[in-house]
Design a protein that fits this description.
It is built from five helices and nine strands; from the N terminus they run βαβαβββαβββαβα. The protein is of the alpha+beta class and 178 residues long.
């Protein structure tokens, strides 16, 4: 499946949610805590190749995701092939990764609420580095949804949470303090 997405940094979600709640066909997934582990080999070859291997626990579900490097050099949108599957046992999957020679490269957490409108996913993310909207759909729909929030291409972020976190901190993981 091809994933086309952008992130937009925002201050709060109140106005965004007011606008999203007006869509009567919206399917809403309420706030869930996500814990994400990014795996790589010790030489960081996946990162260097633009690939991502993630194990996520969210709402009691474990999801293994692999993302390919971006094939489209469009700087306004992040466009990648994405493959996901449900994993029944989080700890066994971690052990398999370890036995394959993979290590946890980066850990990040967030609280996410998702609105699905037609084929578009609008996710509200509360992270340790701020609040973001992530819009996933086709390019035309992303532009239309961004305009609904009075946002434009100049507001689009295509960097990963890892990159955004590293811009602020040179080491550590993006986790909430206890």
């Amino acid at each position: 499946m091809t994933e086309i997405e952008v992130k937009i940094r925002i201050d709060d979600f109140e106005d965004i949610e007011d606008k999203l709640k007006k869509f009567i066909n919206a399917h809403i997934f309420d706030w869930e805590f996500e814990d994400n582990l990014i795996f790589d080999f010790p030489d960081l070859r996946l990162k260097k190749e633009g690939r991502l291997l993630r194990l996520r626990n969210s709402g009691g579900k474990n999801i293994l995701t692999f993302k390919t490097p971006s094939k489209d050099k469009d700087e306004k949108f992040k466009i990648r092939e994405e493959f996901e599957t449900i994993v029944s046992d989080f700890n066994k999957m971690m052990k398999i990764m370890e036995l394959l020679g993979l290590k946890i490269f980066f850990r990040y957490q967030k609280y996410r609420k998702t609105y699905i409108i037609d084929d578009n996913h609008i996710s509200l993310d509360k992270t340790p580095i701020g609040n973001f909207i992530e819009i996933e759909g086709d390019k035309k729909s992303i532009m239309k949804i961004a305009n609904l929030f009075k946002k434009s291409e100049k507001d689009f972020i295509t960097e990963s949470y890892y990159t955004l976190f590293r811009e602020k901190y040179d080491k550590g993981d993006m986790v909430f303090e206890k």
